[in-house]
Write a structure and sequence with these properties.
Blueprint lengths: L1 E5 L4 E8 L8 E11 L5 E7 L5 E7 L10 E6 L2 E6 L5 E6 L10 E4 L20 H17 L8 H20 L10
Antiparallel strand pairs: 1-4, 2-3, 4-5, 6-7, 7-8, 8-9
């Protein structure tokens, strides 16, 4: 993979924290006089080549104004494409190259039918589930894995693999070269 990162805002007002006594709230005060250095990136982009020769592009930024919780996954392949956006989490957009000429185009799928994963215990079809319901499913999957004596997914190994990818992006940015994730131990 090869990556780029940029910090656009290099200094910000210093935050002062007053730690409370038991039962009180934490107070955060902003000093407009004292500035501190920003040590995190505001935007990250990277390209990846997978073992099967597929390509991927990834982007994260704090400057996607207008996106309140913009998390979009787009998968394109030789037979079509699929798009998911967290801000409209009950909808999938599906494109099939096998549709007849003149009928090809992205199709909106409201994924609230009982046949869709995770929908059977919820409301009648057409009634959406929300962000909070995803956490119920996380706990359900965790408890089910324990009951079935198998490792829950995702797990700490998955988190470590994600961390290796992020470290490879950082090394790529610093050394201005492609980095194989397997280089990261």
């Amino acid at each position: 993979m090869i990556g780029m990162q940029e910090t656009f805002v290099r200094k910000r007002p210093m935050l002062g924290k007053t730690f409370p006594k038991q039962g009180e709230r934490i107070k955060v005060e902003v000093s407009h006089e004292e500035m501190e250095e920003v040590k995190v990136d505001n935007a990250t982009l990277f390209l990846a080549r997978f073992r099967n020769r597929a390509l991927g592009s990834f982007e994260a930024t704090r400057f996607a104004h207008g996106c309140k919780n913009g998390q979009r996954i787009e998968i394109n392949g030789s037979k079509g494409g699929l798009v998911f956006e967290l801000e409209d989490m009950n909808i999938l957009w599906f494109y099939s190259c096998e549709d007849a000429n003149g009928l090809q185009g992205f199709r909106r799928i409201q994924a609230t039918e009982r046949t869709h994963p995770y929908m059977s215990p919820w409301w009648a079809p057409g009634h959406i589930i929300g962000y909070e319901n995803t956490f119920v499913h996380v706990i359900y999957d965790f408890m089910k894995a324990i009951d079935e004596d198998r490792t829950p997914l995702p797990n700490f190994v998955d988190g470590l693999e994600c961390q290796r990818v992020l470290e490879a992006v950082e090394i790529s940015r610093q050394e201005k070269r492609w980095v194989d994730v397997n280089e990261i131990v």
